[in-house]
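Reviewers of the previous submission asked for a worked example of the structure-prediction workflow described in the proposal, so we include one complete record here. The input consisted solely of the amino acid sequence. No template or homolog information was supplied to the procedure at any stage.
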Amino acid sequence: MRTSSAVALVLTLVPWSALACRVPAESPSGIPEELTERTSADRVARGAQLFADHCAVCHGSQGRADGPAARFLFPPARDFTRGRFELVSSTNGVPFDRDLVATLRRGVPGSAMPGWSWLAEPDLWALAAHVRALAIAGVEADLTARARSSGDELLLADAASIARERLTPERPLYARGAAPLDAPTLAHGRRVFLEHCAQCHAADGTGEPAPLVDEDGTMNWARDFTAGFFEGGDSPAELTWRIRAGMPGTAMPPTALVAEDEAALIAFVRSLIPAGTAQRLVHTRATLRGQRTARVPLDPDDPAWNAADEVDVVLAPLWWSDEAVLGASLSAVHDGETLALRLRWPDETGDVRLFSEGTTTDAAALQLSGEPRVALFGMGAPGHPTNLWHWQALRVEDASAALELLDLAPHAARPTQPGEVRPDVPLYRRLLGRLEPSSDAARITVEGVSSVGSAPRFPGEVAAHARWHAGEWSVVFSRALAPGTDQVPLRPGSTVQIACAVWNGAAGDDGAKKSISIWQELVLEP
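From that input alone, the workflow returned the following structure tokens.
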């Protein structure tokens, strides 16, 4: 039984008139009318608390992209204090609150920024208000520093008002009329694409391999339209905004086209996008039912798993790589005494090798929290611990034990006395080509990102049964429901939060270089 947490979007090239191309009406404060009963100060205060809970770990407490997890991220976290935002729909390149909310709701596929659609709508707008406040404060601080350095008293006096003006959007951009989606239109669009876009995105829309450089000096790559990784969506309206406003702060400039050329270009770009791909990296939360059964299946291939509830989860690589794992499937059952969780994900190699070019190995982890509202990426916090169940396909102790079985390498001659050197004569010995994956997992209790390295590991509390077959890993984690010391309680009828992480050893994943999910809800049936 399967419940998908990723909503598939079927791309059909329909007339623009059938899509919502016009931006929604806003109040003068920039938020929907139904939210105006909350004062601006209240919204910013609520946004500040949400930001501290969920965002500061990457973006830093002041929005300067200097949080404790920022050094693990590529592309890097956004520095809000620069006052530059990529996804905008205004004529002056400044986001409306609705643009910020749309980014929060969707996340930024192709980066570690997840979607926040699971937050309440007022919370999304509160976060947007706080992000804008951080941007205004950052621009004002930069102007003030420049004014003091140059002795410009006028700039010093006007820094606050200039910062507010710079972060105030002007007129909205609206989509024009529909374009007929026929062969002549697509041919017209391809000509426009070759003239204006192919220099960066390549003639076939796959993007050039050479990186471009953003305003802040970080590397960026032109979008591969055929891969479907769209930071801001692929609707005609959203593509209109990317064309006319560009992506401020990046190498993507605004482009002014006549109506016919713009409509044809959008039709052609959308024809490059494989159906359903624009939503496949958008994070959503799901509820996983841990069904009660008479017997807990520990073998990953046990047919009993076919009847278990299963959810698909999107994984975001913290350090982007074409070989990163982008999705996994999670299922759960219990028998009143033991909980078993099966995690499945695609992997071409099944990396359990002693003598590989690198030292990394495939691995996976589950993170559990007993708190109803837990920080998204924080891995706990002081006084708010989470449990990690960490499994590696090849552990150090497994490798050491295997190496002890290797007496001599092939073609080495056994000496008859100490110090003797004998000519090389054939002495063939069978080397270990592939090991069985580890059957153990460590439980780690962490209270924040910085605590992971020093946190003690407790082997034996969690068991793991792993199988790699036909390009897929399948690992069953199991633990007694009765909690031990520092363990998250697991009881029939209870609800816990669960997230997962996967390391691709063949891609060099290790430590913080991994793919992670957002929290999902696990409900254990009574």
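The radius of gyration is 27 Å. We consider this example representative of the routine output the project will generate in years two and three.
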